[in-house]
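Reopening this ticket.

The earlier resolution said the output was attached, but the attachment link was broken on my side. Pasting everything inline this time so it's all in one place.
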Amino acid sequence: MRSIVLSNMRTEKQRCRNTDHKEDGLMHKEKFPRFWRNLLLTSGIMAAALVLSMFLARVNDDNNPFATAVFILAVALIARFTSGYGWGIAASIAGTFFVNYIFTYPFWTFNITYPGYALTAAVMLIVSMIISALTTQIKQQEQFRFEAEREKMHANLLRAIAHDIRTPLASILGASSALQEQTLSAEDQEPLVDGIRRDAQWLVRVTENLLSVTRISGDISIRKEDEVLEEIIGSAVHKYRRSPEALPVLVDTQDRILIVPMDGVLIEQVLINLFDNVNAHAAGATQIWLHITTKSNRIILSVEDNGAGVDAARMSRLLEGSPASEHADSRRGMGIGLTVCRTIVRAHQGEMHVSRSAHGGLAVSFDLPYPQ
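Inline output:
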């Protein structure tokens, strides 16, 4: 009964995602524009500073030497967490007014002749400008770094795609030409047709990877929903087993239903790619294990095999698109699957790791945020 309910939930979510993903993503981005976010943040911090200063003034019988420091801190926070200079400047002006009008004798009177008024205003304004400038510079550096990483990712993908598409297409073209131009027996035709089928299936997988990348290449943030991990894994294993070369997959049994926020389609693609990676590169592998563990609000999924493994020198380069072994299939040796997997996992605020498996082969694991 539970599997039927979970399957229905999965089917309904998949249908809704396919039809409404783009519209919902745009609505989500437009729900809180940057202006309103900055306004709410500024108002909340200033309100908190005002309440705290009034509390300190009451504790000290209206003698509040901390009001200026509290509002300087508020201005610093606003300048740090809002965009541009305007919000910090506005906060410094408002903070100076509050300190002068509410917390400086004579109280509840605006006194521009107060000797500390100009100094307070100047300090708040300078703090606001400095922090806003530093914050803007940090954000620009982060943006430049993100753009550099994305360009590197795109370069690796283009290099891998050119290799992974060109060779299978040449093989399909050669086999189809042989079938068309030569008179072959059914026995001779069978390997050619099988080769065409296998190469076509591989190209389908490459296309699915490309579609996965296009969903996250425009923005590092993705649309996540609470998904039943058991259903995502079950769907990935089912699709993987359609391949004639599929190895048995043994998944850890869980004593409870794990609900994990994710983009289910993308994580499913990650698992399929990792299973396919075993078929393509794990020499001598006869079994795949999927181990699931939780640690410090993270859930860790590890795809492991009992193949020949990978030497340490080559292991560190696997996630950059290098071949898993010197004996890997030449048509599939560029590792586009792992490159895509790492991109998807990082978009989920996770990371991917490669290590030796306790089963004797390779272990490729990734973690996802898992609020418990």
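Reporter confirms the inline version is readable. The chain has two domains: 34-144, 219-369. Residues 1-9, 15-31, 323-334 have pLDDT under 50 and may be disordered.
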